[in-house]
């Protein structure tokens, strides 16, 4: 069985790594906050003291980190992943970073005999726990096929998208629509609330209609219950919207609605909602309407 390393054990990475462990892989894990690795040690994983140690003990290393800065920090330096490479290594980065950042990371990894797959996911904490995430992969197809079974421990819908950066790009395309749906849902609910409608009834109408989805249902529950416990933190969506804008600029693509959504999430982050679920865009729009959230 392949020796697997996992770096980044947050809301998503923790349950994803647990599914790898339960599938029988010999697992080594690392997280800057060691306490987050305890449940994985209980599943038989070895808890490493650095990304370097993870690489030294692994044939494949998975990273699931907040952004390109965090990925680079795990990669470089005396205690970084690249410092521990003693044999050809496959690196699967499941973080959400831009296509340009991914290609730069891939080039750096190749210098150290590391083959990078960019494999961001769709789905939040529930699918991460259930092992039913969507996984969109860029990189060499041969490497992808060799890692399909490992990816299958974490995801149900697995897509090979093309060369390096392709997985990263389609993740931004996907999250563009996610942000737009939730922002428009928040606007619709604020409009109803301002007009005196019962928001639970508004939610029932929406969920009975053709525009309903699992995403919409979950976010209606957040809004009507006033519960913004993070399944996907707002700061991550704000970051992803910024990546969309930057990528669109480099490709010469106009994203006018996404640009406005980016500013709305910027406002929500500035108002203290960064660590709440990204459906917390609702109280920001409600406040703008004089509803007080």
Descriptive notes:
By secondary structure, the chain is of the alpha/beta class. The protein has 14 helices and nine strands. The strands form two sheets. It has a six-stranded parallel β-sheet. The longest helix has 29 residues. The relative contact order is 0.10.
Give a concise summary.
The protein has 293 residues and is of the alpha/beta class. The chain has helices at residues 13-22, 38-41, 51-56, 68-75, 99-111, 125-130, 141-146, 148-152, 166-194, 199-207, 214-225, 234-251, 256-273, 281-288; strands spanning 3-7, 26-30, 46-47, 60-63, 89-93, 114-118, 121-122, 133-138, 155-162.
Order of helices and strands: EHEHEHEHEHEEHEHHEHHHHHH
Q: What is the straight-line distance between the termini?
A: 52 Å
E-strand count: 9
On the 0 to 100 scale, the average pLDDT is 97
- What's the helix count? 14
Helix residue percentage: 40-55%
Low-confidence stretches: none
Largest sheet: 6 strands, parallel
- The percent range for strand residues is 5-15%
Widest sheet, order of strands: 3-2-1-4-5-6
Broad shape: globular
Radius of gyration: 20 Å
Given the helix and strand composition, which structural class is it?
Answer: alpha/beta
Describe the secondary structure blueprint for this structure.
Layout: E1 3-7, H1 13-22, E2 26-30, H2 38-41, E3 46-47, H3 51-56, E4 60-63, H4 68-75, E5 89-93, H5 99-111, E6 114-118, E7 121-122, H6 125-130, E8 133-138, H7 141-146, H8 148-152, E9 155-162, H9 166-194, H10 199-207, H11 214-225, H12 234-251, H13 256-273, H14 281-288
Parallel strand pairs: 1-2, 1-4, 2-3, 4-5, 5-6, 8-9
Antiparallel strand pairs: 7-8
Helix pairs in contact: 9-11, 9-12, 9-13, 9-14, 10-11, 12-13
């Amino acid at each position: 069985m392949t020796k697997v390393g996992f770096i980044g054990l947050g809301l998503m990475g923790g349950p994803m790594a647990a599914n790898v462990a339960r599938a029988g892989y010999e697992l080594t894990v690392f997280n800057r906050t060691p306490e987050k690795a305890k449940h994985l040690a209980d599943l038989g994983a070895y808890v490493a003291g650095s990304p370097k140690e993870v690489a030294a003990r692994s044939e494949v290393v998975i990273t699931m980190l907040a952004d390109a800065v965090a990925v680079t920090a795990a990669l470089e330096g005396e205690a970084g992943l690249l410092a521990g490479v003693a044999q050809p290594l496959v690196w699967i980065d499941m973080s959400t970073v831009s296509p340009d950042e991914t290609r730069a990371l891939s080039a750096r990894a190749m210098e150290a005999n590391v083959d990078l797959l960019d494999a961001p996911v769709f789905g939040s904490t529930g699918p991460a726990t259930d092992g039913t995430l969507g996984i969109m992969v860029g990189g060499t197809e041969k490497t992808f096929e060799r890692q399909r079974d490992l990816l299958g421990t974490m995801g149900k819908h697995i897509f090979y998208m093309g060369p390096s950066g392709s997985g990263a790009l389609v993740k931004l395309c996907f999250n563009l629509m996610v942000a737009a749906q939730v922002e428009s849902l928040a606007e619709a609910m604020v409009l109803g609330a301002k007009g005196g409608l019962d928001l639970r009834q508004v939610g029932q109408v929406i969920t009975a209609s053709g525009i309903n989805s699992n995403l919409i249902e979950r976010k209606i529950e957040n809004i009507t219950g006033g519960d913004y416990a993070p399944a996907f933190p707002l700061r991550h969506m704000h970051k992803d919207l910024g990546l969309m804008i930057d990528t669109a600029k480099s490709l010469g693509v106009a994203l006018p609605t996404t640009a406005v959504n980016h500013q709305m999430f910027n406002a929500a982050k500035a108002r203290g909602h960064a660590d709440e679920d990204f459906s917390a865009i609702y109280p920001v729009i409600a406040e703008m309407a004089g509803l007080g959230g």
